[in-house]
Automatic annotation (TrEMBL):
The protein's name: Glycosyltransferase involved in cell wall biosynthesis
Organism of provenance: Algoriphagus chordae
InterPro entries, per the entry: Glyco_trans_1 (IPR001296)
SUPFAM superfamilies membership: UDP-Glycosyltransferase/glycogen phosphorylase
Keyword Lipoprotein on entry: no
Domain Glycosyl transferase family: 158-317
Keywords: Glycosyltransferase, Transferase
GO MF annotations in UniProt: glycosyltransferase activity
Length: 339
């Protein structure tokens, strides 16, 4: 079986690995996989994808298309158009946390693109529910996967106020909220520490640094910068709590990986996150943009070793459901029809 996988393969340009680079490699255990494209420019990336579809039209069984909610949606849409014109079956993989809004804003395009797909892959129950509510019945739930053996479990029998934040400094991930949280925590725990891992985007890292200085908590915040997955996994051993402040999300791999390592996760309850784990059992969910609520959630973890220990152990147990060992057979089942 031969698969053409279209997505943003931009790790070589300093971006975090996306699904095409993670899932794409794993699918090579099932089929021959061609991964396109590495161009940073969206226009050149689309041209490369279009060329790959046409060049491989008679040799591939299926085209997988990573589908996002913003400008990347149009790239996926037009790739789908080319596939249909060449009578190639294609499968959109639904990644963008704001895709449900896209279904409303671009209904005609969405109907054309999604209804003509062989099927849709939703990585979360949230995304599957939203698409089914919009009338799309060909949705398969295939969770994001992790390699559990790559994440060393550190059992937190207690948690210190050492907090790790891992995302790019983009507005949708709300990094300023993390600064507000550590400012509140520093009044109770003067030695509280926030490590912020991720690349700069649109000047928001500078904004966060200025805010930390204004609040006089520079000593409580470390701006680590961009790290590889391996590097931030190693760094996580020095922290006990993982903070996710995002305003929009689907099923964030960083949260899943933090749980696999036994970190106590505190996250906003947006998008698909409520479908990811059980609140106050395997992690803690709070309302977005509420620094006070987040800080209280962290205080409860720090002040209650038993609670921290429970979150740590239950998070690891939950993460076993996302191991490739269990996700691989699901892909095999759905891809079998194209062999």
């Amino acid at each position: 079986m031969r698969i053409l996988y279209l997505g943003n393969k931009l790790k070589s340009h300093g971006y975090n690995p996306t699904s095409i680079e993670v899932l794409g490699e794993k699918l090579k255990e099932i089929a021959e996989v061609i991964q396109v494209s590495e161009y940073r420019s969206p226009l050149l990336r689309f041209a490369d994808m279009a060329k790959a579809i046409y060049t491989n039209r008679s040799t591939v069984n299926l085209v997988l298309i990573d589908t996002y909610s913003t400008r990347g949606f149009y790239l996926a849409f037009y790739c789908g158009f080319i596939c249909r014109s060449l009578k190639l079956p294609y499968v959109p993989i639904l990644h963008g946390g704001d895709l449900p809004k896209r279904l409303i804003r671009s209904k005609a395009k969405c109907d054309t693109f999604f209804n003509n797909a062989a099927f849709l892959v939703a990585p979360s129950g949230f995304m599957r529910k939203k698409f089914k509510q919009s009338g799309y019945t060909n949705v398969k739930l295939i969770p994001n996967q992790i390699d559990l053996n790559k994440f060393n479990f550190k059992e937190r029998k207690a948690a210190a106020p050492r907090i790790l934040w891992v995302r790019s400094f983009a507005a949708i991930y709300n990094p300023e909220l993390a600064i507000d949280v550590i400012a509140l925590l520093a009044t109770k725990y003067p030695d509280a520490k926030l490590g912020m891992v991720g690349p700069e985007k649109n000047g928001l890292m500078g904004v966060c640094k200025a805010k930390a200085k204004k609040l006089r908590i520079e000593g409580n915040v470390e701006f680590v910068g961009k790290k590889t997955r391996k590097e931030w996994i190693e760094l996580s051993q020095d922290y006990d709590i993982f903070l996710n402040t995002t305003n929009v999300d689907n099923t964030p791999l960083s949260v899943m990986e933090a749980m696999a390592m036994g970190m106590c996760v505190v996250t906003t309850n947006v998008g698909g996150i409520p479908y990811l784990f059980e609140n106050e059992i395997e992690g803690v969910m709070v309302e977005p943009n509420d620094a006070e609520m987040i800080s209280q959630g962290i205080i409860k973890i720090v002040d209650s070793p038993e609670y921290a220990h429970q979150l740590s152990c239950k998070a690891r147990e939950k993460s076993k459901e996302w191991d490739w060992l269990f996700i691989k057979p699901i892909w095999q089942k759905h891809l079998k029809q194209f062999q």
